[in-house]
Amino acid sequence: xxxxxxxxxxxxxxxxxxxxxxxxxxxxxxxxxxxxxxxxxxxxxxxxxxxxxxxxxxxxxxxxxxxxxxxxxxxxxxxxxxxxxxxxxxxxxxxxxxxxxxxxxxxxxxxxxxxxxxxxxxxxxxxxxxxxxxxxxxxxxxxxxxxxxxxxxxxxxxxxxxxxxxxxxxxxxxxxxxxxxxxxxxxxxxxxxxxxxxxxxxxxxxxxxxxxxxxxxxxxxxxxxxxxxxxxxxxxxxxxxxxxxxxxxxxxxxxxxxxxxxxxxxxxxxxxxxxxxxxxxxxxxxxxxxxxxxxxxxxxxxxxxxxxxxxxxxxxxxxxxxxxxxxxxxxxxxxxxxxxxxxxxxxxxxxxxxxxxxxxxxxxxxxxxxxxxxxxxxxxxxxxxxxxxxxxxxxxxxxxxxxxxxxxxxxxxxxxxxxxxxxxxxxxxxxxxxxxxxxxxxxxxxxxxxxxxxxxxxxxxxxxxxxxxxxxxxxxxxxxxxxxxxxxxxxxxxxxxxxxxxxxxxxxxxxxxxxxxxxxxxxxxxxxxxxxxxxxxxxxxxxxxxxxxxxxxxxxxxxxxxxxxxxxxxxxxxxxxxxxxxxxxxxxxxxxxxxxxxxxxxxxxxxxxxxxxx
Length: 614
Known about the structure:
Elements: H1 7-10, H2 22-25, H3 35-52, H4 63-75, H5 81-89, H6 95-104, H7 107-122, H8 134-146, H9 151-160, E1 163-164, H10 172-176, H11 181-193, H12 212-219, E2 225-229, E3 236-240, H13 250-253, H14 255-262, E4 270-271, H15 272-277, H16 289-299, E5 306-307, H17 309-313, H18 321-324, E6 328-330, E7 341-343, H19 360-372, H20 377-392, H21 412-424, H22 429-438, H23 468-479, H24 502-510, H25 525-532, H26 535-540, H27 548-555, H28 559-571, H29 577-590, H30 593-606, H31 608-611
Antiparallel strand pairs: 1-3, 2-3, 4-5, 6-7
């Protein structure tokens, strides 16, 4: 990851069922499930299936590995050398459970997982302007998570949001997809239900049960939202555009009602004068004179100076009509220029419909209720699968955002047990994180992923590369760089100042949608170049008296002690006897102590152990 000219000569030996079951459908049980009981049940179910398949799980990991793993997973931070020493020496048999609870109560818990959801929402964004509010979204999501808001309430807020994107950061998903109905529907379904329906946009899904009509019925919940620029520079809002407020669209979608409202003499027609006289009261809002002229030019086919409902219906549809429409139309693939088929909203999981005549707020409130319903098994299973995969390196379903009724879960009873407990605890994400972290399955040693495609997972924890934010946190923590100080920051202000922050630049180069399988993540040249040219990192990794490394060398004259402190700082563990021998040999060969330790520290920071979960 980090390139240094002498690094290559160091030569250190451093290592690094598809169907919804009855248990899930019964997840509306209101009695809160106990974390310990559910964790034990999940372990039992997984262990039974593993042994039935002839697979023996690995042993439990040691205390140092558990401390590092859990601290990174829950708070996104490395444990300090002092934390490692104290935790290893603590004789309390329940110290792991105590640690989990302490980490969950830390404000860093919400901050870490807010950044996770930031990447989930913004990495696949189709609207470039969306990122101007991502810092606000992080703050909003961190507050929600730390306050214990239920996942159902968080998702409801994101699906029903309106307003300025800075003042209402819960608009993140909507602006990230440009408030386009099809894109919003596809992403909401993928993220919150773990189901990919986007292939059904143009045709029936080729490998799943979803039909094209079902996709557009989901999109029909979202046609009445729009991204609008406010009076402030680089400021935008998500606005509701209902049929009774849309300028110029009402007359197309409701021609009979439009004619009745404007027809003052009762002849079944509307003249320009009648339109002008009723403009201030018209359901469609005021229609400018230039637009009125164009409407009559295109619609008044018999040139009698008046429009009938039939003439309005026969008018040619502009290229952008579907974009600005307050209703959703499924495009006619045989006639792309036509308006398409009017689609009313219907939820594909249970075929429920909110009915017609609802406002934008009413439609989105209805779809949010359907998404988050206790009777919707995919809602709970989707987040259980996501968080389990982040903790264990692999989900019950893979990819984690491609579940659905034709996919087969590994250990289906285990994911059902977690989903049922999650729902019974009012969609409490802390409960879910606590329960997963308390399982013996999570606390096993790391081992390479089995090669065979049909091999069962979870006999060991799969080693995975840390998310970009976790690598950034670890680097700055180890090197002693204060992210909130002027050190390593751009002092310039302005609307886009956040883009010049070290974390944003790091995430821009290293960040990946957490939905992407970890096996698909690789490094690249721009990442190495960024780290080579980072003044903050280069200055912090020297052996002078003002750095962490300089302090270690100043306070530890004996090499064994200095190396022990270095390993605790970077890798959160003591070095092995063999590692000490290798390092001491290298220090002697270089001759200059400070220079040798700089090389050693660079090597540790470049090791797969530092960049991965162990």
